[in-house]
Amino acid sequence: MGKHIKTISRPSLAKTVQGRGCGECQTSCQSACKTSCTVGNQACMKEDK
Amino acid sequence: MIHKFIFDDHRIVLDVNSGAVHLVDELTWHLLDDYPLLSPRDLVAKHSRCYPVSEVQEAVREIEELVREGLLFSPDPLNGHYEPACNEVVKALCLHLAHDCNLACRYCFAGQGHFGGPSGLMPLETGRQALDFLFAASGSRRHVEVDFFGGEPLLNFSVLQALVEYGRQRAAQLGKVIKFTVTTNALLLTPEVGRYLNENDLAVVLSLDGRQEIHDAMRIFPGGRGSYGRVLENISRFVSSRPGGEYYVRGTFTRHNLDFSRDVLHMADLGFEHISVEPVVAPYREEYALQPQDVPLICEEYEALTRQLLSRARKGQRINFFHFNIDLGGGPCLPKRLTGCGAGREYLAVSPEGKLYPCHQFVGRSEYCMGDVERGIVRPELVEEFRAAHVYNKDACRGCWARFYCSGGCHANAHAFHGNIFTPYEIACDLIKKRIECALYLKAALSSESA
């Protein structure tokens, strides 16, 4: 942890390109009349396994 | 690309392409503006006018280290180009069990449940055909989803029950997992219905707008009387009957309650943990519709809500406000983040007579009818249109810092306001960016306190 910068999270979206996009995750709906899923908070079914 | 913002003295930096989040000091905040433009030597020369040289050198080294690790100014992993998978399948359906409603909510996008057409209930056979279509169309996907929607779906409760039974049987035979959700105004949520929903593990979305005067101004019976009393009684009884069960109490805020944080907190004070309150989407001509000039006030309200949620979290009260949820360490993969809304390609809506539409909001727009449950999709060009509507193909999204969290917004809203699905609805853009900042701040603030 740096003195000037505190890193809260260090994911890598680049690593989620290969071998992903399997489509097993919950379907997203961005409509306000449903409880619209902000995509960023969805779970990855592969990670769950 | 980075996005940085200040929230209550916290200087927060999001590295857009990696998803990394940092808290930085004031010196680093200024250095980051110049880092892409100046050499390290010039950076130190410029900023040592205001800060000690050793401090500037130290901060520059920390920035360089994070750049090397791919956590600051990281490049776009796909370089702005994405070819959607051509093996996508339909894996979710929104079944409109009833184009009828026992309420006459003033802001209802569905025209009091009728969607511009005649009222009617979905026959069981149509529902079974819809499920058969889903199981066939989902191919090798294991997880499939069905949302019972309306109008008010509990007006067709016997068909709902029969479809759950049929869907579970077929899913088991096919080695699939089917998840059911019902979205209801709770008027028909009797103890017996609640028991059924619990015993059969249906996720439930329950409509309540917040304070009584807010709820009763919009969510009225056909005669004009407010529904708060009956709705709250039913929701409270039901929620207390399902410890651990999945539910959301969701409301809508309009121009008449821009102080909607009070509605969120009202619902929290009623004992509800999982809460969603969303902005109404309506044509600008409606007196309750949000207007562009309301955006600054709404953003301030999201900030006020954030402070309230933080304060309560510090006291141990857990409030799961849906729109501030964010998974910084994991979450969905980049392909998912690029495509966002599944409408028209992996998610379809089914009208009571069995017609297929890209989503529930397109139901009744004849130019977007994609087929029916007997024949399946007969207009593949519509699927292609929706498949192409990912963030790199939208001018407003391509350079937006929020693109991997928002994922391009609601296609139906875009179409309603701009006549095409590639131009997002601007108010929604402004609001989701604010919500993401609030969500990042909540994580950062709680993280720094626990460190």
Automatic annotation (TrEMBL), chain A:
Q: Which Pfam families match?
A: SCIFF
Top-level taxon:
Bacteria
| InterPro entries documented for this protein | Six-Cys_pep_SCIFF
Under what name is this protein listed? Six-cysteine peptide SCIFF
UniProtKB/TrEMBL annotation, chain B:
CDD domains, per the entry: Radical_SAM (cd01335), SPASM_CteB-like (cd21124)
- PROSITE patterns documented for this protein: RADICAL_SAM
- Per the record, the domain of life is Bacteria
Q: Which cofactor does it need?
A: [4Fe-4S] cluster
Keywords, comma-separated and alphabetical: Iron, Iron-sulfur, Metal-binding, S-adenosyl-L-methionine
Q: Name one GO molecular function term.
A: metal ion binding
Organism, per UniProt? Desulfofundulus thermosubterraneus DSM 16057
User: In this record, what's one Pfam family?
Assistant: SPASM
List the InterPro entries hit by this protein, alphabetically: 4Fe4S-binding_SPASM_dom (IPR023885), Aldolase_TIM (IPR013785), rSAM (IPR007197), rSAM_sf (IPR058240), SCIFF_rSAM_maturase (IPR024025), SPASM_CteB-like (IPR047602), Sulphatase_maturase_rSAM (IPR023867)
Task: Return the protein name.
Answer: Radical SAM core domain-containing protein
Under PANTHER family, the record lists:
ANAEROBIC SULFATASE-MATURATING ENZYME HOMOLOG ASLB-RELATED, RADICAL SAM DOMAIN PROTEIN
Ranges for domain Radical SAM core come to 87-318
